Amino acid sequence: xxTVALFGAGGKMGMRLxxxxxxxxxxxxxxxxxxxxxxxxxxxxxxxxxxxxxAITGAEVVILAVPDTHVGAVAKDLLPKLAAGSIVVILxxxxxxxxxxxxxxxxxxxxxxxxxxxxxxDETDPAAKADHFGGIAAKQxxxxxxxxxPEEHYALxxxxxxxxxxxxxxxxxVTVEQIAILEPGLxxxxxxxxxxxMREAMEEAIARGVPREAARDFLLGHMNILAAxxxxxxxxxFSDACNKAIVFGKDTILKPDWKRLFEPEEIRASVRRIT
Length: 275
Prior knowledge:
By secondary structure, the chain is of the alpha/beta class. The protein has two domains: 2-174, Rossmann fold (3-Layer(aba) Sandwich), CATH 3.40.50; 181-274, Semialdehyde dehydrogenase-like, C-terminal (putative oxidoreductase fold), CATH 1.10.3640. Helix content is 49%, strand content 15%. It is built from eleven helices and seven strands. A seven-stranded mixed sheet has the order 2-1-3-4-5-6-7, sandwiched between helices. The longest helix is centred in the C-terminal third of the chain and has 32 residues, at 176-207. It is globular and about 65 Å long. The protein starts with a strand and ends with a helix. 28% of the residues are buried. The model has no long low-confidence stretch (mean pLDDT 96).
């Protein structure tokens, strides 16, 4: 049985991961500094949290389930104490991409992040349909990167990733730089921003007299079919009127150089802002 030390075990993410690690082939040692978090672990898993030094002794894998803004500080304190050959699993590429991980050549850095359940899916179970984040009942894809370490460590890192994000469909191997392009670049800077703008547009329609329920129903329904056509989920094309509206909308809403957001220096700047 492989031993895993889970840091941040009593936090929101740590509790998600701890639930999926329970009952797996991994023996989990929970580490949590806050008394409230320790109690959550006790209530959920029936085990006591242990000190960091005890958790890492003999642990092959160390998971840092802590906020991006804390990864650097936790890693700086913890990593010098790890045994050579340890695999450190980080749940986001931001801190690694920003250079917040200590330099140590004899340990492995493995980065993993969920894609979250796709909006186009075949879920029929109510629990899966309600699991928008993933890791409970809805199937999702994941991305992984072996930042440093021997190639043979990738298989164990991916097994851990498939366990903590279960149920998992496709597991994509990418680079740390590519994960940073995906998040914050694609998913947050672009997608979340445009979704927030769509919500603001809905509120503007409501302010101009459209009933709230009608505006929300209309927008969410159109999001479904427009996304299905745009991403090739169904065969179809937009009407000439819709295509003209898209051209006008892009010219009006988007800056001509908006794709510079994906330039390496822009991704680095974005990562620095959130870490």
